[in-house]
């Protein structure tokens, strides 16, 4: 009998076919989309994503955009029907599969998109940046860091942003859910540079499904051997290949 399997999804450009942070501004305001970009590449070019999104979200609120505008932008974000088919069919034929979402987006974005597509119950846990509507200004979305600035830094040397080390997050999840060895196999679907760190924590029997031509693809090829990447790697371009 096959053992338990864990399927870990990055969200932007992996589970969905867009970058949630950019998309909301692209839908609502070209000016703020540009400002987000400018802020992101300021200084070292390594600005903490939830910080710049939070700053730009405040501008969006001050320009008079409403909660419903933001929610509607999220509901029309591209999500491939084949990805929905892939996860719902795997879920129905394999009761031993657990789905985990590990993302540098935020709770409100991910929750809204999953609800729109009837997938609110898919993930056993969603590890991401906290977000909430400002109680004294209900149209203002506040986004915070997963790892607050007041906490000691995560100390990861693989290049994770200050707000979240995805490798540490995966390790903690596994520790709290029976340990790594309670899963026969771990599958990780990702595309971004920050998906490289968790792959280094995985075993030779695990599998990475890496989206072709993006930053993770590049890091696996350039740094994989040097950093001791053990797991199997397969490449994909479109959601139907994940279904396969
Ligand atoms: Mg991504
Ligand atoms: Zn890390």
From TrEMBL:
<dbReference type="GO" id="GO:0046872">
    <property type="term" value="F:metal ion binding"/>
</dbReference>
<dbReference type="Pfam" id="PF06888">
    <property type="entry name" value="Put_Phosphatase"/>
</dbReference>
<keyword id="KW-0378">Hydrolase</keyword>
<dbReference type="InterPro" id="IPR036412">
    <property type="entry name" value="HAD-like_sf"/>
</dbReference>
<dbReference type="InterPro" id="IPR023214">
    <property type="entry name" value="HAD_sf"/>
</dbReference>
<feature type="binding site">
    <location>
        <position position="12"/>
    </location>
    <ligand>
        <name>Mg(2+)</name>
    </ligand>
</feature>
<keyword id="KW-0479">Metal-binding</keyword>
<dbReference type="GO" id="GO:0016791">
    <property type="term" value="F:phosphatase activity"/>
</dbReference>
<dbReference type="InterPro" id="IPR016965">
    <property type="entry name" value="Pase_PHOSPHO-typ"/>
</dbReference>
<feature type="active site" description="Nucleophile">
    <location>
        <position position="10"/>
    </location>
</feature>
<feature type="binding site">
    <location>
        <position position="191"/>
    </location>
    <ligand>
        <name>Mg(2+)</name>
    </ligand>
</feature>
<dbReference type="InterPro" id="IPR006384">
    <property type="entry name" value="HAD_hydro_PyrdxlP_Pase-like"/>
</dbReference>
<keyword id="KW-0460">Magnesium</keyword>
<feature type="active site" description="Proton donor">
    <location>
        <position position="12"/>
    </location>
</feature>
<feature type="binding site">
    <location>
        <position position="10"/>
    </location>
    <ligand>
        <name>Mg(2+)</name>
    </ligand>
</feature>
<protein>
    <recommendedName>
        <fullName>Pyridoxal phosphate phosphatase phospho2</fullName>
    </recommendedName>
</protein>
């Amino acid at each position: 009998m096959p053992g338990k399997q864990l399927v870990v999804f990055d969200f932007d450009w992996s589970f969905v076919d867009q970058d949630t942070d950019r998309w909301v501004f692209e839908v609502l305001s070209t000016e703020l989309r540009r400002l987000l970009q400018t802020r992101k590449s300021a200084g070292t070019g390594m600005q903490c994503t939830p910080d710049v999104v939070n700053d730009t979200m405040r501008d969006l609120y001050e320009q008079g955009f409403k909660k419903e505008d933001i929610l509607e932008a999220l509901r029309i974000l591209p999500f491939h029907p084949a990805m929905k088919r892939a996860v719902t069919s795997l879920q129905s034929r394999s009761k031993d599969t657990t789905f985990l979402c590990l993302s540098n987006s935020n709770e409100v974005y991910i929750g809204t998109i999953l609800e729109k597509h009837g997938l609110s119950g898919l993930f056993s846990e969603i590890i991401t940046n906290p977000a909430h509507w400002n109680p004294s200004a209900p149209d203002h979305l506040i986004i915070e860091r997963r790892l607050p600035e007041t906490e000691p830094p995560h100390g990861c040397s693989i290049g994770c942003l200050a707000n979240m080390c995805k490798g540490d997050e995966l390790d903690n999840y596994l520790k709290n859910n029976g340990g790594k060895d309670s899963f026969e196999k771990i599958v990780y679907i990702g595309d971004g540079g920050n998906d490289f760190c968790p792959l280094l924590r995985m075993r030779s029997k695990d599998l990475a499904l890496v989206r072709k031509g993006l930053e993770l693809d590049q890091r696996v090829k350039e740094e994989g051997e040097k950093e001791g990447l053990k797991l199997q790697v397969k490449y994909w371009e479109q959601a139907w290949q994940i279904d396969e």
